[in-house]
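[Q] Does anyone have a clean structure-token version of this?
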Amino acid sequence: MSAQVQRPPGHRSVGLTGGIATGKSTVAALLRERGIAVLDADQVSRDLTAPGSPTLAALVDRFGPGLLLPDGTLHRKALGDIIFNDPSARAALNAITHPAIGAAVASWVAAQPGVCVVEATLMVETGSHRRYDDLLVVSCAPALQRARLCAREGIDAAAAEARIAAQAPLAEKEALASEIIWNNDGLDALRAATASAWAALMARPPGAGRPQRPGGSRTDQ
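[A] Here you go.
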């Protein structure tokens, strides 16, 4: 995703990311509860790969008709199985989808009148975190991440490890964060951690919290 976010006066853009099964989408929902504009870049991707779209056609050309379900929609599990086990396939997917996603996200961000958040799974992996003023990273203990992923997807530990390994390590994402939101406990603790991280972020000028030290700013262990 190479499009640049253009910021009008008073505007502030915040990237939101985290490892798979760390609770990023739950944090996005908690931010929406607070009245903050949040865009799900993964939903943008789903919209751009709707039946009949040029992006879906390009994916089928690259990966074959097995990517389509009987109703013509993208078979996301089949695609996931391919890219989680093949770095070159993952790179090909990114080359097809990320330019269109980046343009759509940049257009949405530019249209927001104040503070806005973009939630994306592969923000660090693609380098798109650099285009936002601030970066929130949702993280948790690695063992808890594995357990959550196994329970959510109904997969074994080896499959969970493969999916986790397909993303940048949590420590790498944490090191880039303006604020880290720790999700090692229940929803109430996560709600409190999210509120604390957001308050700390908004207390500083845009970009002032980008890392000056290896671990980022840890708001809740």
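[Q] Thanks! Anything notable?
[A] The first strand starts at residue 12 and ends at 18.
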